Amino acid sequence: MRAAAATPGPGYPPAETPEPGHPPAVLTRRLAYAYPDGRQVLFGLDLRIEPGERVALLGPNGAGKTTLALHLNGILPGPGDTASGSVAIDGLAVGPAHLAQVRRRVGLVFQDPDDQLFMPTVAQDVAFGPANLGLRGDVLRARVETALAQVGMAEVAQRPPHHLSFGQRRRVAVATVLAMQPSILVLDEPSSNLDPAGRRELADVLEGLDVAMLMITHDLPYALQLCERSLVMDDGRLVADGPTREVLADAALMAAHRLELPYGFDPLSVPGRARRR
To answer: What's the mean pLDDT when you consider all of the chain?
Structure first.
């Protein structure tokens, strides 16, 4: 495990042209950000996530984790914000020129599934994004059926989302972004408010997806189960980056950044997700 250095300051370079071959799924360079009131939230973040890599983003409340996630698909910066540095997804700079392509490639799954589900039926919710891309007819139906099958929810396609359990709605929310065929899923507290069965069912779904993942979570056993690598973020900076098991087993690091394992949980004694070779 290594500490993650931050290098804040003015004069950051512009976003670069796509790298040849297989560019990283996510690449930020010296990303800094402040809200219009002047409050600085991100301080020179350098982050690289490779295609297919599973990464947990850990840290206390207020560390800037969600703010970072909202930069990945261009929701931030907003009017009046101050931002510098660069963000690229699959080698495409996040900015006006590529925003539509970037938002298709970044599947952002919010903490509350009801923020993403608003159509009369599950199938219509899952179809909404691809339809906005111009898909119609059999192609659109196949995209919806595939996405719902990936999350084990094909049988509820014609039901209203509000008739589903919370765990089912969360899996449907994942299906709405899978229907866009993203290259990276960004999940904000995916296990929150789930009962044990719902937590396991979602983990089974996420394990089966062939896509890069950035998972913001306070659920540290979930991070160990699903992500081979973990980043620790605090006060707008990346302070550690390493294999999840090593990060969670570092008692001094955990204490310094207000991260606590469940009582009796030993990250060295349970299996975790292995790093892909």
So the answer is: 91
For the chain, the distance separating the N- and C-terminal CA atoms, rounded to the nearest angstrom, is 17
Q: Is 221 left (phi over 0), alpha (psi -120 to 50) or beta?
A: alpha
Q: Is residue 38 part of a domain?
A: yes
Give a yes or no: residue 48 inside a domain. yes
- Residues 87/31, Cβ–Cβ less than 8 Å: yes
- H or E element: which one contains 107? strand 106-109
Question: In which region does residue 216 sit, left (phi positive, over 0), alpha (psi from -120 to 50) or beta (all else)?
Answer: beta
Residue in 205, 238, 226 with CA at minimum distance from that of residue 276: 226
Run of H or E residues at 83: strand 82-89
In a domain, 265, yes or no: no
3-class SS letters over 14-72: CCCCCCCCCCCCEEEEEEEEECCCCCEEEEEEEEEECCCCEEEEECCCCCCHHHHHHHH
In order of 49, 137, 199, the CA distances from 206 in angstroms are 17, 28, 11
In whole angstroms, give the CA distance from residue 152 to residue 261.
30
What range does the domain containing 209 cover? 26-256
Enter the tokens of residue 213: 């993942």
DSSP-derived pairing of the beta strands 54-58 and 106-109: unpaired
Q: Is the model's pTM score more than 0.85?
A: yes
241: domain CATH number is 3.40.50.300
R_g of the chain computed on alpha carbons: 19
* pLDDT for the residue numbered 271: 87
Domain assignment of residue 99, yes or no: yes
Question: How do residues 158-202 score in pLDDT, each as one tens digit?
Answer: 999 999 999 999 999 999 999 999 999 999 999 999 999 999 999
